[in-house]
Amino acid sequence: MSLSLHLPVLVILLPLMASPLCILIDRARASWLITLIASLLSFYCSVLLLQQVQITGTISYELGGWQPPWGIEYRIDLLSAFMLILVTGLATLVLLFARYSVEQEISKLRIVPFYATLLLAIAGLTGICVSGDVFNVFVFLEISSIASYTLISMGRDRRALNAAFKYLVMGTIGATFILIGIGFLYMHTGTLNMQDLAGRLPALYDNRTIRAGFAFITVGIGLKLALFPLHLWLPNAYTYAPSVVSALLAATATKVAVYMLLRFLLNIFSLDFSLDAMPLDLILIALGSTAIISASLVAIFQVNLKRLLAYSSVAQLGYIALAIGLANHSGLTAAMLHIFNHALMKGALFLSLGAMVYKLGDAELHSSQGLIRHMPLTSVSILVGGLSLIGIPGTAGFISKWYMIQATLELGLWPLALIILAGSVLAVIYIWKIVESIFFQSPPSTVAVHEAPVSMIVPMAILAAANIYFGLNTHLTVDLADSASTLLVMGGGQ
Fold it and tell me: At residue 493, does pLDDT exceed 60?
């Protein structure tokens, strides 16, 4: 039987089966190579799945020969294929970068378990993207979350343990809320299949238990995606985690949580119920707007660059929440675009800081002084990522912010357009701090470093180039985001 028929399960199985293989072989370099190959093969499967979906439409994969809704279903539509490309592609680049960074930042005895755990995190994230069953979404979410707690705790700074514990507590609360919400839905529908739920729920929208389930799920996912003011776990987690983990979480984990939110709001429930009847649209707009301004202001005063980018991530997630809250086609398209574009810019920035940590030992602002003279490629990567974060024309960040402004103006909500612009102005301030230090200040006389190894430079360069490429050539990303938002609003890609 052709393996192409089993791509929906292979994309999860490859990292899942490679994880114990790392433990069995128990060699650091071999574990890195196994992890990289598994991620690369998973990315290849994701590309094939996207091609299949574009040609044949939504793919339904039945596990164990049981037809849905009685059996477990993996379901791939344009949005899930889009997210699979994002998760596996960014994971592959991060793992290419990881070899030297992990050898420096992780103790020798923990390197093999580190890679095994990293594979579990990737398997969990891909599982969330392909599952057509809400309980299995929860299961995969917990696999990725538990792996993430462990990975963060492996940071060399002892404060990483405190950051991991705080993330564990808040993540467990979020997971409990999600599970309670799923239980409420099951009580009145008797099904866990997403498409079956979508068919049964409209007749039950006035039921208090269904509405309570909706509220529990929304708050739980809000904790997982670090939606303001539920973001308190994120700054320390990004700051004290190993550089590779910070890059992976910033580029993929919170984006998959946003994907979950979109699935529940637009696929399982409907846009009219979620963003009108409840009404979640006003809440998302208010919280998103507050996040954009407040988190950007906090970022301005940070002297640790990883913490600065962490608060920036809270602000960028605010942009996505605001765009979803607009509840129109342009807003949803802008949200999906920003999921992809923000992954590119934060991937480039956190990998660049990882190279800086590898050479200089930390990511403090004062350590970056005159970095252009010693690490020019890393410095340019930071510059490109920063320009994209601001939304300078010609970068990927500009495209998604442009679509957001268009979406607000379509509804006549020009004050929200001003908030988006104000967020970009604040981003200019905190990015300029970094640019000034790197390009216009003299390096300390004691510093004598050179560029990071090639395996670290290549993924940084690819992501920096992608920020430029997708800022100039928007056909692929805009078309995919537009088609995915259309299918979601019409009924989840059926």
Answer: no
433: in domain = yes
Domain hosting residue 333, numbered range: 279-494
Residue 252 vs residues 91, 171, 249, 443: alpha-carbon distances, Å: 8, 16, 5, 34
Look at residues 292, 259, 380, 275 and name the one whose alpha carbon lies nearest to residue 326: 275
Task: Return the DSSP state at 276.
Answer: I
Please check whether residue 409 lies inside any domain of the structure: yes
Q: Could you check whether the bond before residue 376 is cis, i.e. omega within 30 degrees of 0? A: no
* Residue closest to 90 by CA, chosen among 343, 336, 363, 266: 343
Q: Pick from 468, 469, 461: which is nearest to 352 by CA?
A: 461
Check if the beta carbon of residue 329 is closer than 8 Å to that of residue 489. yes
Handedness of CA 300, 220, 215, 273 (dihedral sign): positive
pLDDT at 494 over 50: no
Asked if residue 17 lies in contact with residue 98, where contact means CB atoms within 8 angstroms, the answer is no
Domain count, the chain: 1
Structure tokens at 219: 């708050």
Beta bridge partners of 62: 73
DSSP state, 98?
A: H
Domain-located, residue 230: no
* Cα-based distances in Å from 484 to 13, 204, 340, 435: 25, 26, 13, 36
pLDDT confidence tier of residue 180, bands split at 50, 70 and 90: very high
- Prediction pTM value: 0.89
pLDDT tens for residues 199-238? 888 888 888 888 888 889 999 999 888 888 888 888 888 8
Q: At 399, list the tokens.
A: 């495209």
**Residue 4: inside a domain, yes or no?**
no
